[in-house]
Design goal:
By secondary structure, the chain is mainly beta. It folds into 4 domains: 3-157, Immunoglobulin-like (Sandwich); 167-284, Immunoglobulin-like; 289-384, Immunoglobulin-like; 387-478, Sandwich (Immunoglobulin-like), CATH 2.60.40. The protein contains 2 helices and 38 strands. Strand 31 (406-408) and strand 32 (413-420) form a beta hairpin. It is elongated and about 95 Å long. Mean pLDDT is 89; it is low at 1-38.
Length: 479
């Protein structure tokens, strides 16, 4: 067991002192009054335990270190704190309050949790920490000095629930298909570490009296691996009471029951897996999609690219090839018999200069565009977009490092074959950050995504498939 010896010897008002085998820091400025008699402090500190799992500790405080020896002048007052870091140089040290009781140095469990999260994040993995005790000795006349000890090594696991990499919906919205993973409805995630962003969402249309549960990725993996014939088993999430129609509630994995959405229509389902809660927001018949039929694809709404309103706020965005006239429709068909709606040039109060009136249709020159339509304010924008790769993986983040990609309208794919270094990168349009993509390869995020990563240097074919905030993705193939 490694021990720390802390010595405080010969504290005078004029700050003259001697020390043995220790460093002394942060001495108070000397005063001009007559010096007191020398005061002394000697104590030794050791580990109470080599590891702590905050998920299993129920007490509010933790005995992080213990005092094995004490020699102190009773006229002095001594207080303590503990410095914590993940490296012995304490370059990123955090300081937490500590108290001494029954020879043990205690810290609040909440303070230790925050320190681990700040240094490593919230993922519940065993984390290596280096700690040291500071002792602050105060004489009766108010002079204080700090004695800093050597290091102790401990392992701390922060408290956090199990959060899987992905979640899926099953129930009335997919015909309760439990033996075909492709028929499950996957919730959308940002692609960040799930412990930094535990929010999963889905926008979907449900039938009336729609019963549903949540399937974790581990059950899908078991089905795909052939070790299970369906997705049911440990880890499936539901509620306490079968048929619960509450708009929000707690998710459980022990004897989970079905939640229920009473009314048919579009809904937004949000899961917070750090809190294990769900929320259902009824959106009625407002669609999260607008279809864009036009000259670019034969004026067929059922085959048209889609704009998507990620926040259901009437703002729809997407990335698509356009060639002349086009319209927007609120459904994958033309209006018929008073059912359905389409939007041409006259609908909008505001357009960008490159959008013209083509016999009632909207029209732009042939190019690939970022299209944004605010249906509440009746404004539409079309920004021509030429895509490239930027970042450490292609030599740096300056404009001269952009690697321009080529577009194939037959496959709706931007691509380039180039050498990539191990490192981070993003996609951006027009060599500018106004329009960019990051996140995860299978789920790109518009303007807010984390940097993508190349793990191994080499020659790659990079493919970028842009649709909208729901479906954009990329693929890296090493040649």
């Amino acid at each position: 067991m490694k021990k720390i010896s802390l010595y405080f010897i010969s504290l005078f008002a004029i700050a003259a002192f001697t020390a043995c085998n220790e460093n002394f820091e942060d001495w108070a400025a000397p005063q001009t009054n007559e010096p007191e008699n020398a005061k002394s402090l000697l104590f030794e500190v050791a580990n109470t335990s080599a590891s702590f799992d905050l998920g299993t500790i129920t007490a509010d405080s933790i005995e992080l270190a213990k005092q094995t020896k004490l020699s102190n002048d009773p006229q002095t007052t001594v207080s303590y704190d503990i410095q914590i870091d993940k490296a012995a140089d304490f370059a990123a040290k955090l300081q937490v309050a500590a108290s001494l009781a029954n020879s043990n140095f205690k810290v609040a469990k909440a303070d230790l949790q925050k320190a681990v999260e700040a240094l490593y994040g919230k993922r519940p993995e065993a984390r290596q920490l280096v700690i040291r005790v500071n002792a602050y000795v105060t004489t009766p006349d108010g002079q204080t000095s700090k004695v800093q000890g050597n290091n102790l090594n401990v392992t701390v696991t922060p408290k956090a629930p199990l959060i899987e990499s992905a979640y899926y919906l099953i129930g009335g919205m997919n015909g309760l298909a439990d033996s075909d993973a492709s028929k499950l409805i996957k919730l959308v995630h940002s692609g960040k570490d799930v412990y930094d962003d535990p929010i999963f969402t889905a926008l979907l249309k449900v039938p009336a009296a729609c019963y549903w549960k949540v399937i974790p990725q581990s059950r899908v993996d078991a089905l795909n691996a052939g070790t299970s014939s369906n997705v049911w088993g440990d880890g499936v999430l539901g509620c306490v009471t079968d048929g619960d129609t509450s708009e929000d509630g707690k998710l459980i994995t022990t004897n989970p029951q079905d939640m229920q959405i009473e009314d048919a229509g579009w809904v937004k389902i949000t899961l917070n897996m750090m809190e294990y809660t769900y929320k259902v927001e009824a959106l009625g018949e407002i669609s999260p999609y607008l279809w864009v039929p036009g000259n670019h694809q034969g004026w067929a709404p059922d085959k048209a690219p889609q704009l998507f309103s990620a926040n259901m706020d009437m703002v729809y965005t997407g990335h698509l090839y356009l060639n002349g006239g086009f319209k927007l429709t609120g459904q994958p068909s033309w209006p018929s018999g008073g059912v359905g709606v389409d939007y041409g040039y006259s609908y909008f109060n505001s357009t960008t200069e490159n959008i013209t009136d083509d016999g009632g249709n909207l029209a732009v020159a042939e190019a690939f565009y970022y299209l944004k339509s605010n249906m509440a304010t009746k404004a539409i924008e079309a920004t021509k977009a030429e895509w490239s790769i930027i970042g450490a993986a292609v030599g740096g983040w300056n404009p001269e490092n952009d690697v321009v990609m080529s577009y194939d309208k037959a496959t709706n794919c931007w691509s380039v074959t180039t050498n990539l270094s191990a490192g981070e990168f993003k996609f951006r349009a027009n060599k500018d950050w106004g329009i960019n993509m990051g996140g995860a390869e299978n789920k790109l995020t518009f303007n807010n995504g984390t940097n993508l990563q190349v793990t191994e240097a080499g020659n790659y074919t990079v493919e970028l498939y842009l649709t909208n905030d729901e479906g954009s993705h990329c693929k890296l193939t090493k040649n």
